């Protein structure tokens, strides 16, 4: 697996990075294991939290530099990269401020005596992370686990080695000891060997269903805890009483943000028949207005896909969908220019036997479905292998809340797109994975919730 930086806006190779050897991996494991058995990991949390405070400050001071690295490496619009970098500082600060309270002992009433649950680190973790949010995905794992005392070995996606390297440097600069976070340019086989190693106690993966299945199987084989945050095929439901202009504006952003390469992007637009034509007309017009171009240009509104592979995969999916009866309402092709650009695309008339009905499209492709009522909307939303996020638009909040409760996903937003914040749990059900990241729930995934009882 070659680790290299290729600018997807130009397809120019910027830099290749040498892979880590098995000896490098062993050295990283040794350092992580030694740290886990030290007072730094197992002792007072107050010695770890200042690292997160310092990390947040370092990130805040370098927003522009970090954003530019991400935009050049994976094609995200520069304004969106800045937003991601700032969010990372917020996550680090959130755990610096709240982890002590989250990990405080919890008392339980019992006839057996005085009882409480303590929270202890479980040991070294293996994290496998994707390219689409090249800093945020790392911070979601680092911040809670550094606070808890779990050292982390991280394998980032092979197309974002510069982001991976700069993140690791920031963690060290913030004062984390050797072994707290190791960036490894390694193969899938090396990841499997790390998970099998007795010194490693868990695995966290964000990525594709296929990658998640492989990592989860290896963790299960060795009876180790894992968390998975995989794909999504989120619905964006627009009911007949919705504020259409607001729904259209947010819907366009929900599909085109990060060139559509977001696990929680709106992918299936489920429209009440009474407003379907009006919504589609406004939505199509807004898609046509997208300005394709260099992600570093502030006026660009749609950047490239992350790689040639991503472009080829998406092109193939759209062609297959049309071949199987979907109607191409707009776009549908790669843009004829240098780089990995794809036209904003809208597909309609997708039947259940079309492979597109169940697939996740990782790019600027919106699918349109029309329903007669709320029950049909819920049935369509739940007729999916995935269960990550979703959105419901209605001016009747009680009606929207009822629908949100019936949709089988880990997250639902009302009158907004599926979003993320440090204080809110993130994760899904079904083939979107299991476990939660961020919030108080995220820090509890990889801790030993140890019961202690004093017999009365």
What is the element layout, followed by pairings?
Layout: E1 3-7, E2 12-17, H1 22-36, H2 39-42, H3 49-61, H4 63-74, H5 78-102, E3 106-108, E4 113-121, E5 124-128, H6 136-148, E6 152-155, H7 161-173, E7 181-183, H8 188-196, E8 200-206, H9 209-221, E9 225-229, E10 234-238, H10 244-256, E11 266-272, H11 276-288, H12 308-323, E12 327-330, E13 345-348, E14 365-371, H13 374-382, E15 386-387, E16 390-393, H14 397-406, E17 413-414, E18 429-430, E19 433-434, H15 439-443, E20 447-455
Parallel strand pairs: 5-6, 5-8, 6-7, 8-9, 10-11, 10-16, 11-14, 13-14, 16-17
Antiparallel strand pairs: 1-2, 3-4, 4-20, 9-19, 12-13, 15-18
Report on the structure:
By secondary structure, the chain is of the alpha/beta class. Helices cover 40% and strands 21% of the residues. The protein folds into two domains: 1-229 and 428-453, 3-Layer(aba) Sandwich (Aldehyde Dehydrogenase, Chain A, domain 1); 233-412, Aldehyde Dehydrogenase, Chain A, domain 2 (3-Layer(aba) Sandwich), CATH 3.40.309.10. The chain has helices at residues 22-36, 39-42, 49-61, 63-74, 78-102, 136-148, 161-173, 188-196, 209-221, 244-256, 276-288, 308-323, 374-382, 397-406, 439-443; strands at residues 3-7, 12-17, 106-108, 113-121, 124-128, 152-155, 181-183, 200-206, 225-229, 234-238, 266-272, 327-330, 345-348, 365-371, 386-387, 390-393, 413-414, 429-430, 433-434, 447-455. Strands 12-13-14-11-10-16-17 form a seven-stranded mixed beta sheet, with helices on both faces. A six-stranded mixed beta sheet has the order 7-6-5-8-9-19, with helices on both faces. The chain has a three-stranded antiparallel beta sheet with strand order 3-4-20, with no helix packed on it. Helix 7 (161-173) links the parallel strand 6 and strand 7 (181-183). The mean pLDDT is 98. Pfam families: Aldedh. Keywords: NADP, Oxidoreductase. Belongs to the aldehyde dehydrogenase family. This is Succinate-semialdehyde dehydrogenase.
């Amino acid at each position: 697996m070659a680790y290299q930086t290729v600018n997807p806006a130009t397809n120019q190779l910027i830099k290749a990075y040498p892979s880590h050897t098995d000896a490098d991996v062993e050295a990283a494991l040794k350092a992580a294991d030694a740290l886990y058995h030290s007072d730094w990991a197992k002792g007072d949390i107050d010695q770890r939290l200042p690292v997160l405070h310092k990390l947040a400050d370092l990130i805040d001071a370098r927003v522009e530099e970090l954003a530019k690295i991400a935009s050049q490496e994976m094609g995200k619009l520069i304004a969106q990269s800045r937003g991601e970098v700032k969010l990372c500082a917020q996550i680090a600060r959130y755990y610096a401020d709240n982890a002590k309270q989250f990990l405080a002992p919890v008392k339980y009433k019992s006839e057996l005596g005085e009882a409480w649950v303590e929270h202890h680190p479980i040991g070294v973790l293996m994290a496998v992370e994707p390219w689409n949010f090249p800093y945020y995905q790392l911070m979601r794992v680092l911040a809670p686990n550094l606070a808890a005392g779990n050292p982390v070995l991280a394998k980032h996606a092979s197309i974002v080695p510069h982001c991976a390297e700069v993140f690791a440097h920031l963690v060290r600069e913030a004062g984390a000891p050797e072994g707290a976070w190791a960036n490894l340019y390694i193969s899938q086989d090396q990841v499997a060997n790390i998970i099998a190693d007795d010194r490693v106690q868990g695995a966290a993966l964000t990525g594709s269903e296929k990658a998640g299945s492989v990592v989860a199987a290896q963790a299960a084989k060795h009876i180790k805890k894992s968390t998975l945050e995989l794909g999504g095929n989120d619905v964006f439901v627009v009911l007949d009483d919705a504020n259409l202009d607001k729904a259209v504006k947010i819907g366009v952003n929900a599909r085109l943000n990060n060139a559509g390469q977001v696990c929680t992007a709106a992918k299936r637009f489920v429209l009440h028949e009474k407003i379907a034509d009006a919504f589609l007309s406004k939505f199509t017009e807004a898609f046509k207005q997208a300005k394709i171009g260099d992600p570093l240009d502030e006026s660009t509104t749609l950047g490239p896909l992350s790689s040639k592979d991503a472009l080829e995969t998406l092109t193939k999916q759209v062609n297959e969908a049309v071949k199987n009866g979907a109607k191409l309402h707009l776009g549908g092709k790669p843009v004829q220019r240098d780089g990995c650009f794809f036209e904003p695309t809208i597909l309609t008339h997708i039947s259940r036997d079309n492979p597109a009905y169940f697939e996740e499209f990782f790019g600027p492709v919106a699918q349109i479905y029309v329903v007669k009522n709320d029950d049909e909307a819920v049935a369509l939303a739940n007729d999916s292998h995935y269960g990550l996020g979703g959105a419901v638009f209605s001016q009747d909040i009680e009606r929207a809340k009822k629908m949100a409760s019936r949709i089988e996903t880990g997250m639902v937003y009302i009158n907004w797109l599926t979003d993320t914040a440090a204080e809110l749990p993130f994760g899904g059900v079904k083939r979107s994975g299991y476990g939660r990241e961020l919030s108080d729930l995220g820090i509890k995934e990889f801790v030993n919730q140890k019961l202690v009882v004093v017999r009365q």
